[in-house]
Amino acid sequence: MEVDKSSKQGDNSKPRQTHISPELANQAINDAITYSGGDVVVMARTCASGFCDALQQCYGSEEISDVFIACGSGLNGLIGLQVAVELQKKGYAPEVYAAEQSKHANFRSVCDEAGIDLHDFIPSTLEFYYDIVVDALLGTGFDGGDIRQQYWTVYEMLISTRLAIVSLDVPSGWDLSTGPRKIDVTADSFIKPEVLVSLGAPKLGSKVFAGGYHFIAGRHLPQSYFLEKGISVPAFPGEESNCVLMSSNPFRFEGANGETYGRPGQFNATLYTKNPTREWVDVDKHDDLWDELD
């Protein structure tokens, strides 16, 4: 795995904030749509391109192929859908789960046109058939309150899976300002991504991210947009680059099950919170396993 660290830098000429507030995060989304000519799909494609470039640095298509993408109904879900399309072009084998009908696109028609499988359920055999999971369930619209019932099944999967998770912009269920909710930290029941790809600029809650790699991705807004608002963002390595590494902890990347996730003075939760009981089965004698994936 190769990660480009050449542009892990920012403008240090004067003190600036490095993370953005929930208010600015939501304002930036609206401004990005305007910047894209009012076309939310165009913006989503731009974000997806940067996200996929970051994912590819950590998980090359020669190393892994099968990617399960969990999408919500909002903007993060739309970007997740475009991530699937982009990964397909890059030689991966993505499959999409849609928690409910999207507000922005017809997932079925997009997936059919691209030849991507679309699921409306979480396969119980998930960990046997996929290499990594993309978390595109909830985004900046999540206010830190209760998670809607429609999302509980996939949210529980994201909490309990032993597959590596790459979160889009904000790990689902994390508060934009503070990170994992206190009740979830106490219960050791929150999403713990190995890779976080923030869109445009990192959110305040990502300060407690303790996975392997944190990227900034997407040219959906010019970087001058954040600089004008007093936010220091690292420069992209070149004109053709769509992502830049913000921070890394390679010793945590692909760590063993049960290693700690957190930093001194913060939470100290296990990397994998639940240990579901699993057993190998003879697929020839269990037709339902195949039926579930069909």
Automatic annotation (TrEMBL):
Q: What class of enzyme is it?
A: isomerase
UniProt-listed Enzyme Commission number(s) = 5.1.99.6
Q: Which PROSITE patterns does the UniProt entry name for this protein?
A: YJEF_N
- Reactions catalysed: (6R)-NADPHX = (6S)-NADPHX; (6R)-NADHX = (6S)-NADHX
The record's keywords, sorted A to Z, are: Isomerase, Metal-binding, NAD, NADP, Nucleotide-binding, Potassium
Q: Which InterPro entries match?
A: YjeF_N_dom, YjeF_N_dom_sf, YJEFN_prot_NAXE-like
User: In which residue ranges is the amino acid composition biased (Basic and acidic residues)?
Assistant: 1-14
Q: Which GO terms describe its cellular component?
A: mitochondrion
**What are the boundaries of the region Disordered?**
1-22
Q: Per its UniProt record, what Gene3D superfamilies does this chain match?
A: YjeF N-terminal domain
Q: Where is the YjeF N-terminal domain?
A: 25-237
What the entry lists under Pfam families is as follows: YjeF_N
Record keyword NAD present: yes
**GO MF term list:** metal ion binding; NAD(P)HX epimerase activity; nucleotide binding
Give the top-rank taxon of the lineage listed in the UniProt record for this protein.
Eukaryota
Know the name of this protein? NAD(P)H-hydrate epimerase
- What phylogenetic lineage does the species belong to? Eukaryota, Rhodophyta, Florideophyceae, Rhodymeniophycidae, Gigartinales
